[in-house]
Amino acid sequence: MTAPGPWVGVDIGGTKTLAALVGPDGRVRDRRRAATPAAAGPAAVLDTAAALAAPLLDGLGAGPVGVGTAGTVDPATGAIRYATDSLPGWTGTPVAAELAARLARPVRVTNDVDAAALGESWVGAGRGRRHLLLVTVGTGLGGAVVRHGRVERGARGATGEVAHLPAPGAEALRCGCGRYGHLEAIASGTGLAAGYALATGDPVTGREVAQRAQAGDPAAATVVGRAGTALGAALAGLVALLDPEVVLIGGGAAEALLPAAAEAYAAHLPAAWAGVPLLPAALGGDAVAVGAARLALTWTEHP
């Protein structure tokens, strides 16, 4: 029996925090948003998340809140096992316990890409699919696998982390993990910026590289095309490994990379998986918050 809802989902990112009130149909009924005070430290980030969520919880009883956040999350405790410098000091933060204390209700926490995959599986481009792979292309590169409505976590809560696959063409580019030659180093906003700087000496953002490619800049078009090709080839290999029903691409840089990625994906996809489509994700900026609300709902259904 599905709990009536609505539910509150919170998206804690390096630049923005979003809290959304989500109905049992997956539609966002209300949302509150603020800049994430990352430089002020974890306590300030948690205070902001709680302040956004609290008004949406008014009158909802004592049900749980779902949270999707940057970083690798310990699924048993809701604490952050590892996070990059996009949220300084975030590693080790007991997010579930701290927010539960601030909101006076249970809190369940997952990685932001895992939450986005839950949202897409529930009411997005993966709706009705039992098994999907989502890859998000933003500043970095993230991935998540959902099977039968639940995120596959693995031994360390990090299943689907496609960022660190070796990628031809990325040998001279540094990944966010500090090593060279990984998929994130070429197929991400950071990778686009690094590739363009290497080719031209011009230090611009990944977003600007994508805009220049669209405007006809040959160097930018080459960088974007190479990134999309690397991503599409990697996804074709992952389909053979994971056997999903659908592969989704989301994130701010997804639109720029999708044409070349789709071409490479089709070229490299083994014949046995020829029917597995590569599709754009559908929920946009609401995906993490919607998936976090779904996390709260499923926790109520299956505590």
UniProtKB/TrEMBL annotation:
| Protein origin, superkingdom | Bacteria
Which Gene3D superfamilies does the record match to this protein? 3.30.420.40
SUPFAM superfamilies associated with the record: Actin-like ATPase domain (SSF53067)
Query: Pfam families given for it?
Result: ROK
Output the InterPro entries linked to this UniProt entry.
ATPase_NBD, ROK
Entry's family note:
Belongs to the ROK (NagC/XylR) family.
Q: What is this protein called?
A: ROK family protein
Q: Which organism is it from?
A: Micromonospora fulviviridis
Lineage, please?
Bacteria, Bacillati, Actinomycetota, Actinomycetes, Micromonosporales
